[in-house]
Design brief:
Radius of gyration: 32 Å
Largest sheet: 3 strands, antiparallel
Number of helices: 4
Number of domains: 2
Shape: flat
Structural class: mainly alpha
Strand order of the largest sheet: 2-1-3
Order of helices and strands: HHEEEHH
């Protein structure tokens, strides 16, 4: 069994990558901060520090202290854009929305027409043979597979466009 591990390429790779990483790892210290909370750091200079030995996969993060606002600053309402944020006129936005809807509807019509053509070419899984093909030829099977994938892709595009055209319900 020992000879098997020594000759396995994966074991050799693991050995070559693990040893340098183990040699480079620094010590981790668990200490206490001024408020008595546990903190983890890479140096042991602090109150109540103890070295943590062994392999540590993760080190818990610390919760940052809440920042104090100056008393003169008014609390900002959540979801409100800053005063310097550009505003769009309501009529301009309606025109943009109408244009967007028209573009999506045009794309939906084009994709639906494409799907009709693909299904006709697919002919329920038996596309017409081209002059250089036979039913058993590789090129025929690849063409059938490509048609099936194109149909699935087109159906997915149609579903996405219909979802995009559905009005949002809040």
């Amino acid at each position: 069994m020992r000879a098997l591990f020594a000759t396995t390429p994966g074991f050799l790779w693991l050995l070559m990558t693990a040893l340098p990483a183990a040699a480079q790892s620094d010590a981790i210290w668990a200490c206490e901060d001024d408020q008595g909370r546990k903190v983890f750091q890479n140096v042991g200079n602090g109150r109540g520090c103890r070295r943590i030995d062994g392999l540590i996969a993760t080190v818990p993060g610390t919760v940052p202290a809440p920042q104090q606002r100056p008393p003169s600053a008014a609390p900002a309402a959540s979801g409100v854009s800053p005063a310097s944020f550009p505003k769009v006129d309501r009529d301009v936005q309606r025109l943009r929305d109408v244009d967007r809807r028209r573009i999506l509807e045009d794309e939906l019509r084009v994709e639906q027409d494409r799907l009709v053509r693909l299904r006709q070419d697919f002919n329920n899984g038996s596309p017409r043979l081209q002059p250089d093909e036979t039913a058993a030829s590789t090129s025929y099977r690849e063409r059938v597979q490509r048609l099936m994938e194109d149909i699935q892709r087109s159906e997915g595009s149609i579903a996405s466009l219909k979802r995009e055209l559905t009005p949002a319900r809040y």
